[in-house]
Amino acid sequence: MRILFLTHAFNSLTQRLFVELQEQGHEVSVEFDIHDEVSLQAVELYKPDLIIAPFLKRAIPEQLWCKHVCLVVHPGVRGDRGPSALDWAILNREQRWGVTVLQANAEMDAGDIWAFNEFRMRDDTKASLYRNEVTQAAVDAVLKAVQRYQGGEFRPQPLDYSDSEIHGQLRPLLQQSERAIDWQRDDTQTVLTKIRSADGFPGVRDQLYGRELFLYDSHAESKLTGEPGAVIARCGGAICRATVDGAVWIGHLRDKQAAHPFKLPASMLLENEITDTPEIEPGPDSGYRDIWYEERGDVGYLHFPFYNGAMGTEQCVRLRQKYREACQRDTKVIVLIGGPNYWSNGMHLNLIEAAESPADESWRNINAMDDLALEIINTQSHLTVAAMQGNAGAGGVFLARSCDEVWARSGVILNPHYKDMGNLYGSEYWSYLLPRYVGEESAEWITQARLPISTTEAQQLGLVNGVFERSVDGFVSETKLRATALADAAAYAARLNSKARSRATDEAHKPLQNYRDEELENMWLNFYGFDPSYHVARYNFVYKIPKSRTPMTIARHRRITENLRRVS
Ligand code: COA
Q1: Which CATH number fits domain 2-151: 3.40.50.170, 3.10.20.30, 3.30.70.580, 3.40.50.720?
Q2: Which atom of ligand 1 is the closest one to the Cα of 262?
Q3: Topology match between the domains 2-151 and 188-269
């Protein structure tokens, strides 16, 4: 079928549906829901068999749903309605939640139900639940709905609140007052739940040092205590605030009134206020850890659950140091296991935007990423594995490919390209790694197409070596089994030798330094040259400026007209 996505943005859920439906043989084109006229024009141009709205913030125009079947993906159980579905589910500590695919009509979220799916809730942030459970449930429900639509026999179920199976209800937009933290009364779990219900957006509004701040990235502290509400410690980028029964770490803050009104590490935003606050070292049961090493038998695991997968200069330097230490251990395999939500999304664009000279900080950051990638590529003492529990984008994908093996959780989405960030050339030795693993032709296509890639396709291309398990827990357990098997394999020594030989051959053919120089020459132009596209694109990304038009790479219907015009 020919399917048109009408969506607020090409976010992770939309990307996943995009690749899954194409793998089922459908043709998919995307239009951003910018204006009714534009949406109507998209339908006119594409003449879709079906319209799907994976992520909408406004109602679908009546002219559309009157004439076409429009399926809306709602991140709530049947009967749930309103714009804050997942926020309420977290705040109300629902045990089960779901996704409903319903047909758009005059009433928001009240149309006939084509499919639904439910899942057990996990104690985590809204963004994490959205990228994991909600996305998987949405994929299953949308595929079911599309199949039913295509079959032609299925009659969608009208929403009937008298049905005992319907548990949802209409809920309003969740206001800040509903999740405001009362530091004198709320226990640790309540504070965590409130912050998690608003993370990544909009954050929980709070007062600290006379400033209005939005809180994100919260974790329980198990040892420290203090005066409820007081900032009692700092650790890396995070601050620790006492609650009535313990304390919580807050990793990121946003101050709408500040010179840089976007999310930044908490200790950076409060640098003037917390000069006397004691700094503690992170440990297994206390503090805010963004990098740690774990060893099991012959395998070392490096965890780096950086918030939003963004890797700043200092984080790259620390990770490289930890990696070097891991290489000194008497083990055989090192697994770079990232974090449960992301493996890596490349350079830290927020920190770059906040720097005194974004160009200089971009330069420092990319060099630190390159140093890390180089260390991994040149490792002769161990076999290395990148194990992707979550999505990876831009330089993050190529950093993963610097390992000998890349394993990915089934359903992870990869965006192995840089150009969407203002024509950024990219580094991380991608110009060596990509052709080496996928071949020249696919490398050319991947970089130019700028499309999200599924794990199935990534494996076919050679970008990924192993794809398994849908759940994060299942993936981590299976990774541990496979890494142990890799270390124990009879062919381990031969593999290590052959890796050293092929590295030497490649180095003789063209030294890594040459790849780096060529990439960085182009990056230098991106950062310091006359074309400001990268700086503009980064600003728009960090400030979340909505796109004014759908990129041609995904608006297939607009490409067709261009072609027709050219022919006539
Ligand atoms: N630096 C800082 N923040 C980043 C980031 C980066 N490199 N990549 C993603 N984020 C943040 C987003 O701002 C967003 O923040 P929020 O919590 O305020 O919503 C969050 O991570 C999730 O990103 P989002 O874009 O909403 O996720 P997505 O799944 O829709 O898209 C990507 C994934 C990777 C395509 C997209 O995030 C992206 O293009 N990132 C930038 C990649 C890049 O160009 N890196 C620099 C070159 S190496």
Answers
A1: 3.40.50.170
A2: 18
A3: no
Which residue CA neighbors atom 11 of ligand 1 most closely? Answer: 308
How far does the chain reach from its first CA to its final CA, in angstroms? 27
Backbone angles phi, psi at 544, to 5 degrees: 55, 45
Protein residue whose Cα sits closest to atom 32 of ligand 1: 393
Answer CATH for 292-526 from 3.90.226.10, 2.60.40.10, 3.20.20.140, 3.30.70.260: 3.90.226.10
Beta carbons of 341 and 126 less than 8 angstroms apart: no
Dihedral sign (CA 196, 198, 203, 204): negative
Q: Position 406: which residue type?
A: V
The whole-angstrom distance between residue 306's C-alpha and the CA centroid of its chain comes to 11
Q: Indicate whether residue 421 lines ligand 1 (CB < 6 A).
A: yes
CA of 486 to the centre of ligand 1 (A): 33
Per-domain boundaries in the chain: 2-151, 188-269, 292-526
Q: What is the pLDDT along the chain (568 residues), one digit of tens a residue?
A: 999 999 999 999 999 999 999 999 999 999 999 999 999 999 999 999 999 999 999 999 999 999 999 999 999 999 999 999 999 999 999 999 999 999 999 999 999 999 999 999 999 999 999 999 999 999 999 999 999 999 999 999 999 999 999 999 999 999 999 999 999 999 999 999 999 999 999 999 999 999 999 999 999 999 999 999 999 999 999 999 999 999 999 999 999 999 999 999 999 999 999 999 999 999 988 999 999 999 999 999 999 999 999 999 999 999 999 999 999 999 999 999 999 999 999 999 999 999 999 999 999 999 999 999 999 999 999 999 999 999 999 999 999 999 999 999 999 999 999 999 999 999 999 999 999 999 999 999 999 999 999 999 999 999 999 999 999 999 999 999 999 999 999 999 999 999 999 999 999 999 999 999 999 999 999 999 999 999 999 999 999 999 999 999 999 999 865 555 544 4
Calpha distance 332→328 (Å, rounded)? 10
- Look at ligand 1, atom 22, and give the residue with the nearest C-alpha: 308
**What is the distance in A from the centroid of ligand 1 to the CA of 308?**
7
Whether 447 contacts 394, CB under 8 Å: no
- As a CATH number, domain 188-269 is 3.10.25.10
Give the closest residue (by CA) to ligand 1 atom 17.
200
